[in-house]
Amino acid sequence: xxxxxxxxxxxxxxxxxxxxxxxxxxxxxxxxxxxxxxxxxxxxxxxxxxxxxxxxxxxxxxxxxxxxxxxxxxxxxxxxxxxxxxxxxxxxxxxxxxxxxxxxxxxxxxxxxxxxxxxxxxxxxxxxxxxxx
Length: 133
What we know:
Blueprint: H1 2-22, E1 25-29, E2 51-60, E3 65-74, E4 80-83, E5 87-91, E6 96-97, E7 103-106, E8 111-120, E9 125-130
Antiparallel strand pairs: 1-2, 2-3, 3-8, 4-7, 5-6, 5-9
């Protein structure tokens, strides 16, 4: 009986440690004054759009998942759909990637905050850009 109790306690403690690796922590809040000069041989850019990226907070966990909390504003006078190709993350190794999935409806001049995944990566996200001019 005592052996079963300790075995249960051990299994419970292992599962709680595993969940800690999944918890997102804030890496940093980004200001617009930071510039990076990585080569962009593939000429990767976000698709042009009416979506202005107002601000963002980068998050990650110990599993290498990369996330961002984005505040985006539709600057158009009509309805628009924000899609994954409208945003592009720059990683610390110079790679670029769109969010894994994103499709969000906006009304004219609407602003929303949304959390998006950029998948798993060994390197942290340095910046995120939108196709807004």
